[in-house]
Structures are given as C-alpha cells and as structure tokens.
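Hi, here's the filled form for the chain we discussed.

Project: internal
Contact: R.S.
Residues: 317
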Amino acid sequence: MAAYLVGVDVGGTTTKIGIFPQGERAIAAWEIPTRKFEEIDYIWEDIASAIFAKAEELKIGKEELKAVGVGLPGPIRDDGFLPRCVNLGMGACHPADLLSKALGGIPVAAGNDANVAALGEVYYGAAKGYQDAVVFTLGTGVGGGIILKGRIVAGNRGLGGEVGHMVVNPDEEAVCNCGNRGCLEQYASATGIVRIAHKFLKETDKASSLRGLEDFSCKTVCDEAKAGDELALDTLEVFGKYLGIAVAHTVLTVDPDIIILGGGVTRAGQILIDVTEKYMKEFTHLTNEHVPIVIATLGNDAGIYGSAALAASLLDQ
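And the returned structure, exactly as it came back:
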C-alpha cells in the first residue's frame, strides 16, 4: 500500500495544501479560501474536505493518507498548544487534535508557520543535507525558525524563532509594531528598508535617484543600490549591519550549520548576503569557520513542504 503525507499552510486569506508520496516532492499543490473563525469553526472541516476531495481525484484511498502537518500563524508550543491566533480569530486550542478529528483520526502535527517553513528548507530546500539551520524570513515584517537535529525548536511559550523582535539597536527612538524599540524588524524588513531610506532622505542632502519620488518600495531601494545609488547603498549598509548583528548573535547562541534568508526582500539577491556577511564576520571573532548564508529556494511553497516534513516526523515515533 502506498503512503502519502499532507502538508497544510494556513494563511489569513488562503490555505495552501500539498499531497506528498512519502519521501518525495509534492504531486499536487493547491489553495482554498481560509474561512476565519466566526460563530462556527469552519476551518478544520474545510481543510479535511479539500484533502479528501483531492485524494479521491488522485485515486488515493483514505487509508493511504498516513499523516498531516499543519502550519499556523501563531505561537504553537512544543506540546502543540496554541494560546491564540489573532490573524485567524482563533482562541486557545490544540490545532492538531481538531484537524485530526475532522480527518477521522489521521495523525496530525502542528507548528508555527515560520518554523514550519524553516523545516521545509531543511528537508527539501536550501538547507537540504543539513540538520541545524536558522531561517530569517524578511518580508513586510521579520520572522524566523530554528531547526536543530532536524526538528523545530518552538520553546516553552512558542517564542522560538521570533528573531524579528530581537533588539539589535537599543538606542533606536522609533517604536516597533510590538511596542519595543530597536527590533531587527525595524531594519531588515521591507518596511524597515523603506523607513531607513526615507530617514536618510530627510536627514541628509545626499544626491539620490530616490529623492523626489512620491513613493517607493523596498524593491526600488534595492534596485537603485545595485545600480550604485549612494543613498540606497547606505540604506542597505544599515540593513546589513543590524541583520549581521542578529545573525552573529544567533550563530553564537545556536551554532547552526547554515543561515537561510527567505521572504520577499531576498529577491534582491547577492547584494543582501554580501552586506550581511560583512557584519556577521565582524561580530563573530570566536571562530574562523564562518557559517554560510544562503537564500531560501522554496518560496511560497516552503510552508507545505515543511508541514509535510512535520507530518513525516509522526511516522518516526
């Protein structure tokens, strides 16, 4: 009898699902709308119905679906408890138990979506072949995931991998969305890069192609930096300095095999790795064996691939 795993990545707007022959890449991947909690909890039944419908289409029997992994945008503890998931309107629960019930008892494992995406990069993506990795996800905000010995480190409160709110500049005056000051997210996110560029435009008279633009994006700043714009390059120096500090702290705390940068910001490519490595090396003098920094390869599919790896861990128990 064939054995299949299912990876589920629950987002605030859509839920991605993939079906995987055990040990292989996805043979089907699709999305369904995420019906957030209202008066009735629809989400688990929606996911279960979508999995069974696709399995039937692929002529996969229910008995061949061996395990399911699910990533959710909330702090899931090592014991699977989710205190709250604001983006989904979800209160305290054990998501794995609820989805398993909807699936008629198929075993389910649940994890924080950023941690699960990190697991995907370890088992299927940029860190394949490594067991210890840390992922920094650089998007609108900054998230992350820690994988040690091939397993997610979630922590006692589900805060493992919350690298975006590591304070890297205690002298910062601007307030982060979390209420603190000097968080990595204020410098290494797409919004942070734009903020820094605007700050330089306001506080200096340095010539720049960005000056005079009504609005510009992180991509604009990165493109202009690659074209040699001095103010844009200064902006990426700030980005690299504070991300480099955060990576250095992580290396000295976790000592991973590899650091992975993911998220939309990394579309800028090698220029971000170069500036980050420069500062990471400056702050990690205890070793000459510098940890490689690479860009994630799975993109938006990292969540379903990581969830499939999470599901596979249930079969090892």
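Let me know if anything looks off before we file it.
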